[in-house]
User: Fold this.
Amino acid sequence: MRWLIILLQLVVPVMVTIYTVNFGRWMSRRKHLMGAIGAYAVAAVSMLLAVWSVVRNSV
Assistant:
């Protein structure tokens, strides 16, 4: 049951990460490589911080 609550708390951060990665893909197709790299970095850091925060506060 505890893992279900953790997964439910991560639904919104996962949706934001998917959106940001798709934005990075869009930027890379338009030849904006630095912007794409920045979008990927923001997506990765935000997802890692969200997971870390939820797991740290749930355990």
In short: Residues 12-54 form one domain. The chain is about 90% helix and 0% strand.
